[in-house]
Amino acid sequence: MQSNMNCPKQPLNRAASSRYISVKMKFWISQLIAVSWMTLSIVLSLPWVHDLEQYIPSFVAFAVIAGISYIPGYMNAFMIASLLVDRQPTFKTLAPKEDITIVIACRNEEKGIGETLNQIAKQDHEGKIDVIVVDNGSIDRTAEVAKELGKQLGLDILVVEETRAGKHHALNRALPLVMTRYVVTLDADTLLHPQAIRYIVARMLSAPADVSAVAGAVLVRNSRDNFLSKIQEWDYFLGIASIKRLQGLYQGTLVAQGAFSLYETDAIRNIGGWPDAIGEDIVLTWRLLGTNQRVFFEPLAVAFTDVPTTFKHFFRQRSRWARGMIEALKVIKPWQQPIMFARFLTGYNLLMPYLDFVYTFCWLPGLVAAFFGHYWIVGPITLLVLPLALLQNMILYRYQKYVFRTLDLKIRRNRWGFVAFVLCYQMIMSPVSVCGYFQECLKLGRVWK
């Protein structure tokens, strides 16, 4: 990972001189395009619906096709339209001097904590950086190594212990010790780009007063480990990044992820700290949105994390994310969100279980049937979603390429991983998410690792 340490002038603000379009206007333009696309899909699919009605009731046929084609097509069209009109707000400063605190909750990270602290020491942020490492019941030398390396690197580091298992306990243990206006959470296996803290603080200081958190951009560090990590590289680079940009445009990023995000310290304290939830960062973010505050996303604040390299760990992580979404829906309902954009974006998540169920139990069997010439469920109209997905990825690739060029990073070649991501990734994700929904409904034991 290489970095250009020079301070670029107003990156990602290429449309500063163009005519201003309000966020609300962008929202309704994107809605018009998305609804138009969905209407066209419905009209073109009527023969398909009629054929399917010969085998199942009419309302079931419509529900299945809606979950396979109409709603995904609407979502993709809305995202594409939004990304095309998206322009990052200008920075008021690119050299902030605000003091911050970085909190790292870790358990048995003796081998990896050194790299994480080393990258913190390389930050070009001009303000003071305090570091709090919370050892959450480690049985190795995590605490000792953190103390030793902190001294060697010249970091102002405090190491504390939290014996109660659970990331929320570890983060809440550090919260009373934070003396700065802003706090950053960072996973112990996540490495910051040298300009990451500067950009995320700059975005917060450039944001309106009611913005209480900024999510950083998390990318894959270990994409060369195996094919599973190569596929996830594109998920983080394009899939998750596109969702974050969409949500950031409408000032309602739904997850200020614990892996790397900046929060206003008092805002966290005012809502009682991090909740006891398997998706503590999701619930925390929704609670912030529910107090009439907004959450931004900064694509230039980049960090790199290790992703699961075995299906067992991948399954645990993604099913945990699905459970976290259900937990958030229980805590605050979308219609209870005070901000219109937040209501719409969180309302998306009400549809996700339905879409994942349809995909898992209808589309996948339908795909098998299509191979034998039976186009009952998977038919020509389903292909309309594919060009939208490719267009979405092309637009995001252009944005991400600009981000990487600004940060003096290079995009790795990973063509087969991209092909697998576009064609096969959802076949893995939807069944895993369905398992997560069942785990939450059945209140099964939580597994973090």
From TrEMBL:
SUPFAM superfamilies: Nucleotide-diphospho-sugar transferases. The chain crosses the membrane at residues 27-49, 55-85, 350-371, 377-397, 418-439. One of its GO terms (molecular function) is glycosyltransferase activity. Gene3D superfamilies: Spore Coat Polysaccharide Biosynthesis Protein SpsA, Chain A. InterPro entries: Nucleotide-diphossugar_trans (IPR029044). Keywords: Glycosyltransferase, Membrane, Transferase, Transmembrane, Transmembrane helix. Belongs to the glycosyltransferase 2 family. This is Poly-beta-1,6-N-acetyl-D-glucosamine synthase IcaA. It comes from Brevibacillus borstelensis AK1. The lineage of its organism: Bacteria, Bacillati, Bacillota, Bacilli, Bacillales.
